[in-house]
């Protein structure tokens, strides 16, 4: 990991969290906002494979857990995003090739990520997590994430691949 | 150890990485969940808050002029159209910012808050909501753009011109996290304004237009009337809730044979999805880097 890459990834994570909490908060449907950090992790998985994506998932998830106004046990989004990064990285040979496959990957990852977060909440006894809430939030989240995929995934993929080429040139 | 990009990755090693990362997550969760008073993760939380809080404040301030635009986005094509529209409107609004209705709206909001301050007699620090917690996180919290430098402490009451918003959970230097009364974790001591009967108002975790709160009355023989106003009952030394702030209006009453006490459904006075200007109740004589409304000794 070179300094340039660390910087680029940190900037992407900060931008994603700021947009998610401050901008899309106004565009929330039933309180659900598109999970831009999850989209970022999926894009990284498609561009760079499971290990980089899972590591980014840990760090970005921790940032999401700790950034205001989060108020849950730290590590829950980190765990969800590590698994998402790993899974998306494992299927990237197929998903990296076609747009449709990428959208399906995003949908699956959104479902897995939000569900894992909910399950960890149930296990830890978070009072806000009940089955009815999960059943409404998860599908809306999947739809919203898929809607934003064409806007978010291509630019991030291009950025990450360009970053890779700059690295290769050295 | 960094392998060349594009080289085949052995699943064995990526599984090891996955195992280590999951272990790290579980460690953090165990550390944070088992802490009673102060968690070892708190310094980290404060650090991240100190960095990301101002970023949220700046972003929130930048997009505030767009608030008046349509709220929900449902299809991809309308999303794209709306984005173009938003960008165009953003440019226009930036030019007109000094003279648009927005300023009048803000003035009206501030007037409302001032009125509340006068009515209740509490000293209030004004703040703006700059970040919303996502429903995917299953907790109803918002970020406000005032922190310890503005004299805000944890467990202070947050209100708006309409009524009770919530309480301060955690404070950083320039931002604070507020737990909304609609959160499923929130319990507020409530009092029926008509009969002075006491009860507890609990959130349901639903902030939408049809989000409701539940009121459990302590005395089972009392039947609250529809339309009764529920106000805060107040805690010792005003923390976390000061007394006499309106919470909501009773919309329905029901009792179950199993429970002795009556339960009432309360419609909150505050629209939690459209929060903007809020006030944090601070003790008299608090030093703040912004004007404290309603304080006797303020210039």
Summarize the structure.
With 170 residues, chain A is an all-alpha fold.
How would you characterize the overall build of this protein?
- The complex is a heterodimer of chains A (170) and B (299).
- With 170 residues, chain A is mainly alpha-helical.
- Chain A is 79% helix and 0% strand.
- Chain A has a single domain, classed as Arp2/3 complex 21 kDa subunit ARPC3 (Orthogonal Bundle), CATH 1.10.1760.
- Chain A has 7 helices and no strands.
- Chain A is globular and about 45 Å long.
- Chain B is α+β, with helices and mostly antiparallel strands and 299 residues long.
- Helices cover 29% and strands 24% of the residues of chain B.
- In chain B, strands 1-2-5-4-3-12 form a 6-stranded antiparallel barrel. In chain B, strands 6-7-8-11-10-9 form a 6-stranded antiparallel barrel.
- The interface between A and B is large, with 73 and 76 residues.
Most strands sheet of chain A: none
Q: Please tell me what the overall shape of chain A is.
A: globular
The secondary-structure element order of chain B is: HHHHEEEEEEEEEEEE
Radius of gyration of chain A: 15 Å
**Fraction in helix of chain A:** over 70%
Strand composition percent of chain B? 15-25%
Low-confidence stretches of chain A: none
Distance between the termini of chain A: 14 Å
Give the quaternary arrangement of the chains: heterodimer
User: Which stretches of chain B are poorly predicted, pLDDT < 50 over at least 5 residues?
Assistant: 1-7
Question: Distance between termini of chain B?
Answer: 63 Å
């Amino acid at each position: 990991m070179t300094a340039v890459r660390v910087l680029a990834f940190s900037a992407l994570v900060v931008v994603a969290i700021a947009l998610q909490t401050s901008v899309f908060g106004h565009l929330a449907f039933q309180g659900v906002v598109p999970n831009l950090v999850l989209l970022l992790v999926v894009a990284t998985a498609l561009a760079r494979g499971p290990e980089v994506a899972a590591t980014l998932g840990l760090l970005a998830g921790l940032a999401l857990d700790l950034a205001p106004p989060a108020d849950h046990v730290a590590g829950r989004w980190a765990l969800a995003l590590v698994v998402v990064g790993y899974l998306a990285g494992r299927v990237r040979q197929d998903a990296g090739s076609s747009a449709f496959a990428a959208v399906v990957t995003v949908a699956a990852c959104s479902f897995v990520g939000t569900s894992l977060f909910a399950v960890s909440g149930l296990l830890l006894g978070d009072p806000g997590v009940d089955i009815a809430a999960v059943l409404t939030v998860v599908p809306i989240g999947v739809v919203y994430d898929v809607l934003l995929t064409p806007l978010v995934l291509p630019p991030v993929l291009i950025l990450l691949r360009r970053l890779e080429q700059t690295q290769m040139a050295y | 150890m960094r392998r060349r990009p594009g080289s085949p990755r052995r699943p064995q090693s990526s599984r090891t990485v996955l195992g280590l990362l999951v272990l790290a997550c579980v460690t953090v969760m165990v550390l944070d969940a088992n802490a009673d008073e102060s968690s070892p993760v708190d310094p980290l939380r404060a650090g991240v808050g100190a960095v990301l809080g101002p970023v949220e404040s700046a972003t929130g301030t930048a997009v505030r002029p767009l608030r008046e635009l349509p709220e929900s986005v449902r299809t991809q094509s309308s999303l794209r159209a709306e984005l173009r529209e938003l960008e165009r409107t953003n440019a226009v609004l930036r030019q007109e910012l000094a003279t648009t209705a927005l300023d009048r709206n803000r003035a009206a909001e501030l007037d409302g808050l001032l009125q509340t301050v006068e009515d209740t007699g509490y000293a209030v620090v004004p703040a703006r909501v700059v970040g919303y917690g996502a429903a995917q996180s299953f907790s109803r919290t918002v970020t406000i753009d005032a922190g310890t430098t503005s004299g805000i402490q944890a467990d202070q009451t947050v209100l708006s011109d309409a009524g009770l918003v919530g309480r301060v959970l955690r404070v950083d230097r320039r931002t604070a996290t507020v737990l909304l009364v609609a959160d499923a974790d929130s319990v507020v001591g409530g009092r029926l304004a008509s009969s002075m009967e006491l009860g507890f108002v609990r959130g349901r975790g639903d902030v939408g237009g049809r989000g409701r709160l539940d009121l459990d009355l302590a005395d089972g023989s009392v039947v609250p009337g529809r339309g009764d106003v529920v106000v805060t009952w107040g805690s010792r030394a005003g923390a976390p809730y000061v007394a006499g702030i309106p919470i909501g209006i009773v919309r329905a009453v029901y009792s179950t044979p199993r429970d002795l006490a009556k339960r009432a459904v309360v419609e909150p006075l505050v629209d939690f999805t459209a929060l903007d200007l809020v006030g944090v109740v601070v003790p008299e004589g608090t030093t703040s880097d912004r004007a404290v409304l309603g304080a006797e000794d303020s210039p």
